[in-house]
Amino acid sequence: MTQTAETPMVELKGVKKRFGNLEVLKGIDLKVDRGKIISIIGPSGSGKSTLLRSVNNLEVIDEGTIMLDGVQVNRPDLKGLAFERHINHIRQNMGMVFQHFNLFPHLSTLENVTLAPRKLKGVDARSARELGMELLHRVGLADKASAYPSSLSGGQKQRVAIARALAMRPKVMLFDEATSALDPELVEEVNQVMKSLAEEHMTMLIVTHEMAFARDVSDWAMFMDGGVVVEENTPERLFTNPDQERTCHFLRKHLASQA
Amino acid sequence: MDINLMIEIAPLLVKAAWVTVDISARALFFGFFIASALVALRTSRFLPVRWSARAYISVVRGTPYFVQLLLVFYGGPAIGLRLDPFTCGVVVGAFNIGAYMSEAMRGAIESVESGQSEASRSLGFGRFATLQYIVLPQAAGLMIRSVGVLAIILVKNSSLVSIISVVELTYQAQRLTGSTYKPLEVFSLSALMYIVIIYAVMGIVELLYRRATRYTYL
């Protein structure tokens, strides 16, 4: 398939996912154009994290298609090692940031960032170091290059995790509640890094509970509940004047809990 | 206590103690590979393979080491398996400890958080590379102490190979008792040597543990 400027960076069509008898994604369509940022909000159990994890096949979907820059991610036709090779290659183009950071505790900060480019792209030690330092600098942690994750704060860990994901020069970044596990005073430093990515037109798909942040950075916002997209719109509209009662209700409850 | 006698027989016991160390070290070495193989077999996609690995582990855990030793040494020749006593001690020791060690390894691997594998896979690492770069280096720290305990059991169990006439510490001690009629002195000294060996093992285990988990306090 040929890629043009109009090819969406990420496109989901009719995505369904079941855990046993429970259908957690009931036919999701979603399109992220290159350089755009989409936020997904919704109550816990709405399927938003599962959706995000499906994009890079950490969750295997049952029906539908997922495309990354014109290439199909889920390939039911490929089995075993053939699929393994395919998905490993696809994943190199997608950066993922987790709620609980998942930094590699046995590696230094710099090694966390450089491991993938060194082992997967064969980048030599010196270039990897330069790349790693550049990325750590960018997230404001160049001075922590030789520190180990156990000595970092949550906010610092998450910034390293973002640098680690960026090290593979991904086409799209997936954020799975990147600030949900952080103490409130550490949220801002991570948001700042995400904003700087937005300014550089990184394509991003963000699952979040941070309504203000989502409204601020997103080009498009979606509200999910019960495995369906209840409503999607521009963030201005979705957050201030939603069409659906369920969206209204969720936002009201959420604002009340944050006040 | 006849101290002079103890000094006199000490060199003989030290020499025999070395055989104890030798047989245990070899069993541990080969046992490690057997354990790794069992861990791999237990994660096989094929049910019969998984099942046979489990069956093997159950048999080893369900029978006394002493019986395993007698079975292989005296029963082996009937099916063409003729081993000299030392080799038999190493082989039975390795297959015995391997079964227990595989459980310790599996436990350690499983207790590395699943988020670690997910992060690795999301970067594009395959299953094997994830095991190699992410899971095993962390599992190592978690398994070293339990493998250390198994190594200590292995050293103690090695006294049982005296029954198939390997001249190790316990066999030598029995022989010396027969010639000196001083069991208290002889067995006290041999017990002391076991303590020395086992504390040395514990020391090595502790060093390895600190090395493997250095990152947690750097």
What does the main sheet of chain B amount to?
Answer: none
Helix share bin of chain B: over 70%
Put simply, the count of helices of chain A is 9
Structural class of chain B: mainly alpha
Number of helices of chain B: 8
Number of extended strands of chain B:
0
In the predicted model, the low-confidence regions of chain A spanning at least 5 consecutive residues are: none
Range of strand content of chain B? under 5%
Radius of gyration of chain A: 18 Å
Helix-strand makeup class of chain A: alpha/beta
- The average pLDDT value of chain A, as a whole number, equals 92
Report the span from N to C terminus of chain A.
49 Å
Q: Which residues of chain B form runs of ≥5 with pLDDT under 50?
A: none
Mean of pLDDT of chain B: 93
Succession of helices and strands of chain A:
EEEHEEHEHHHEHEHEEHH
**Cα end-to-end separation of chain B:** 51 Å
Strand content of chain A: 15-25%
Shape of chain B: flat
Describe this structure in words.
The complex is a heterodimer of chains A (259) and B (218). Chain A has helices at residues 48-55, 80-91, 109-121, 125-138, 154-166, 184-199, 211-217, 235-240, 245-258; strands at residues 10-19, 22-32, 37-41, 63-68, 71-72, 94-97, 172-176, 203-207, 220-225, 228-233. In chain A, helix 3 crosses helix 4 (125-138). The longest helix of chain A is centred in the C-terminal third of the chain and has 16 residues, at 184-199. By secondary structure, chain A is of the alpha/beta class. The N and C termini of chain A lie far apart (49 Å). In chain A, strand 9 and strand 10 (228-233) form a beta hairpin. A six-stranded mixed beta sheet of chain A has the order 6-7-8-3-9-10, sandwiched between helices. A four-stranded antiparallel beta sheet of chain A has the order 2-1-4-5, with helices on one face. The mean pLDDT of chain A is 92. Chain B has 218 residues and is mostly helical. In chain B, 81% of the residues lie in helices and 0% in strands. Chain B has eight helices and no strands. The longest helix of chain B has 40 residues, at 3-42. The model of chain B has no long low-confidence stretch (mean pLDDT 93). The A-B interface holds A 56, 58, 84-85, 88-92, 94-96, 98, 100, 102-107, 115-116, 119-120, 147-148, 150-151, 161, 164-165, 168 and B 113, 115-116, 118-127, 129, 133-134, 137-138, 141, 215-218.
